[in-house]
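Milestone M4 deliverable, item 7.
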Amino acid sequence: MGFMKLSDALNGTEGRAYTIIDGTREEMFYLRNIEATAEKSKVEGKTLGRRGTQHRANGWNGTGSANIYYVTTRFRQIMLKYIKSGVDTYFDVQIVNEDPASTVGLQTVILRDVNLDSVVMAKLDVDSDFLDEDVDFTFEDVDILDSFGKPTLISD
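Output delivered:
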């Protein structure tokens, strides 16, 4: 039986992320962390001849959260546009995992039609060494442009 080399485990700081808003691609250099989850929606039902409840997928929901350094006004501008005019903004986020120390290569995922749930509009904190903010969002679609390869296995 083989085992994975620990050097193939990805370093969380080795990667990059971009927003694509109104056709403009910007690096999210202020990003501290981001996580996006696709969760199935399911219905329950019973059938004759079976006592247990069965489950069937009938859709999915994309949600995510990010923590960023409080150094960009871009998300506040998007929220302000909605507050003042009712015009909502949907955009894409591209996330690339690429650790040069790992043999698995890179993975590129694009979250499509990201929509912000909440945005910190202003912030001060005398007890903080640096200001950051949490940004929650939903997304409507997802694509995987590049996939990881298989890690190197070492035999016993």
